[in-house]
Amino acid sequence: MTIQDTSRIASVTRETARTESAPSVRPARKIRRLPVQKDWPLWVIIGTQIGILVAVIALWQIAADCGWIDGFFWSKPSAIYATLITFFTEGDALTDIGFTFRSTIIGFLIGTAAGSLLGLSFWWSRNYAAVAQPFVICFESLPKLALAPLIILVFGMGLASKVAIATALTLVVSTLTAYAGVKAVDPDQERLFYSLGASRMQVFRKLIVPFCLPWIISVLRVNIGLALTGAIVGEFIASQHGLGRQILYAGQTYDIALVWVAVLVLSTLAVVMYATVSWIESLLRKGVRQ
Questions:
Q1: Can you tell me the distance from the alpha carbon of 10 to that of 8, in angstroms, rounded to the nearest whole number?
Q2: 10 Å Cβ neighbour count for 65?
Q3: Low-confidence ranges of the chain (pLDDT < 70)
Q4: CA-closest candidate to residue 170, choices 113, 95, 255, 245
Q5: Which one is the CATH code of 87-289: 1.20.1260.10, 1.10.3720.10, 1.10.3080.10, 3.40.50.2300?
Q6: Where are the strands (E) in the chain, listed by range?
Q7: Residues 189, 190, 196, 202: is their CA dihedral positive or negative?
């Protein structure tokens, strides 16, 4: 082996070692972008919803006419529409709707206000909160349907018993939500208020209540549904008016079309009240932010 061969082998060895020791450069991966979903226009969404509803009603009518489903137990849209007209022209539709609406709204207002005040009052004393909280939780875990017959016996078959059940369903939720807001208050902010010479009442009015308002507002939509449920439960137990009484009466007489009519009216009432409370909630949130 000549000297030139030896130098050539040494240079090749050095190039190989340099190549192996150098960090390997990988080609950059292409970043996959998430697919962008375009929102449908409002008229397309509403049109799709109406189309689905019309298709379901048409399929229901065809299935009942062709005997695919039992028309006695399921009724059919044509019979439900005829019963709906009779319900509003010859029945006590407005009386029943007004009765359920009043008991729901009154129970909602009393339960939300009283529960929020009770939850805020836990800030004044930790000992008071520690004593009262287990009773509140126990009352929350108790099925309100079990108390409904007792409430009917105490308050009677009128509006008061329905309001009492609606209040019982909303009271505890508002209490626990407001108390959760109280516990979330920053203790350093309280110390700052006290260091500036604020009294306990001033701390409560200027710090605790404004801080807990978003918590209280957030439970409004839940409470309107619970209040409606409480009113209907009271009407199921014993009542002279109300949509719940109509549903119970129609079920006992096997008037399935009337059951669907009462459920439809009740659902419409629930949607209207939920939308109204949602609108009020948005206004209150804007006021709190300002």
A1: 5
A2: 12
A3: 1-37, 287-290
A4: 113
A5: 1.10.3720.10
A6: none
A7: positive
